[in-house]
C-alpha cells in the first residue's frame, strides 16, 4: 500500500502555525513511507474564503519546504462530485430531506436546555410520508439533507496517536446535515463532513493526520465512509499548539501565521525544525537541530505526544540563532541585504566584500534576521547619535588627546588594515601614557556612539572603508 496523506487548509485566513505544523507531520509521514503528500484547499465557505489567503497558504508551505506531490485541488471546483455522493446516500436511504425550520430547531434546543439535555436534532423528519413532504413543500419550506446516525451505534477506531477512541452514536447530535437548504429538486451546497469524506475517498487517502480539534468529526466521518462503501482510513489526531500559559494558541499570543514569522526574521529551516518538535520528539531526544529530510527518516507516529505542545519563543529563537550562526556568509549576506533594504539602508553604496565583512561581524550576535537592522544602523547611517554612556566616556581625561593623536596618525596611514589599526592603538597607549582599555572604549564611543558592540577593530575597518570613521572621530574630539 502506498501511503497517501493530505493537508486540507481552509483559506479563511493566512497559513496558521497549527495548520503548518499539521502539514509538517503529514509531510514527514509521507516522506518516511515514500508516500504521497497532497494539498487540498477547502474553499467551500464562500463568504469567508479569499484568494489572497489561498496564495498566502501556498506561499507559506512553499517557503517552509513542504513540497506536495499532487494538487492544489480546490473543493469549490468539485461540487458535482459531492452532490453525486449526497444523491447516492439519498438513493440508498442513508440520507433524507428534513424540513424543520430554524424556528423549530430553536424551540427544540430551548426545550432540551430547559430539561438539561445536550442539544441535538431529534430526527423528527426521518420518516416523513409523501403527503407530509408535499405539505411542507406547499408551505414553501426548503429542506436540508440529513444523514442518519443511529443512537445505538458504537463507533471506534485505533488512533495512531491517541490509541483506541470510542464514541456513541447518541452523542453525535442526531442526524447530521450534509447539504444546505435549497429545494427538493435542486440540492444545496454539500457541507464539511461530507465533502471531506468524498475527497478523502476519491484521493485515496490512507492516513488522516490532523489536529485534535477535529476528533469529534471523526466518528461522523467513519459512518459516512461505511455508508459510501469505502475503506475507512487510519486516523491520527495530533496535539494542539498551546500558548506558553497552556491555553489554545490565539492571536493574543502574538503572531500565529507563518508569513508573520517570516517577517519577524525567522528562517524557514529553523521554523520548520522548531515546528517538528511541537508534539514530536526524535529517537535521540538530545538531538534538537535537524533538517526536514533527517526528521523524515526518523518520523514515527508513536512518538507524537497526546498532550498539547506549548509554544516556546525562547526555544524558537535559540533554534533560529543556531541556523543563522551556521549559515554560509554569502547566503546570510543575501538575506541581510533584503532586510537592510527594507529598513531603507543603501546597500548599493558599498561593494559586496564590505557587505560580507559586515555580515561576518554581526552574524554571531543575530537571533533573528531583523536584529541586523539595529545592529547595522551605525554602518549605514551618516549621522551618529552619541549615547549617554558614550558621551561620558568621551569626557574622561586624556580622551581628546588620545583621539587627536589617532586621527593625526590615521592621515599618515595609507591603508588601514587590522594590523595597522592595532598598531595605532598601541602607539596611542604608549605616547599618551594611558591604559589600552581607555583607548579602546573611547574609540568605540566615538565610532559607534555606544560603549558595547562587536569586535572593535573590524568595526573600525568597516567604517573606515565606508569613509565615515574619520569624520566621527573628529566630531567626537569636538564633544570630548
Ligand atoms: N479544512 C479543515 C481545517 O482547515 C481540515 C479538514 C481535515 O483535515 O479533515 O481545519
Describe this structure in words.
It is a single chain. With 480 residues, the chain is mainly alpha-helical. It folds into 4 domains: 156 residues, HUPs (Rossmann fold); 113 residues, Alpha-Beta Complex (Glutamyl-tRNA Synthetase, domain 3), CATH 3.90.800.10; 54 residues, Glutamate-tRNA synthetase, class I, anticodon-binding domain 1 (Helicase, Ruva Protein, domain 3); 92 residues, Orthogonal Bundle (Arc Repressor Mutant, subunit A), CATH 1.10.10. Helices cover 47% and strands 11% of the residues. The protein contains 20 helices and 12 strands. The chain has a 3-stranded parallel sheet with strand order 1-2-3. Strands 4-5-8 form a 3-stranded antiparallel sheet. α15 crosses α18. It starts with a strand and ends with a helix. The protein binds glutamic acid (GLU). Glutamic acid (GLU) binds next to loops.
Q: What is the rounded Rg?
A: 32 Å
* Mean pLDDT, all residues: 96
**Termini Cα gap:** 78 Å
Number of domains: 4
**What's the β-strand tally?**
12
Tell me the CATH architecture of the largest domain: 3-Layer(aba) Sandwich
Largest sheet: 3 strands, parallel
Number of helices: 20
Q: Spatial order of the strands in the main sheet?
A: 1-2-3
What is the molecular shape?
elongated
For the record, the CATH class of the largest domain is: Alpha Beta
Q: Find the CATH topology of the largest domain.
A: Rossmann fold
CATH superfamily of the largest domain: HUPs
The proportion of strand residues reads 5-15%
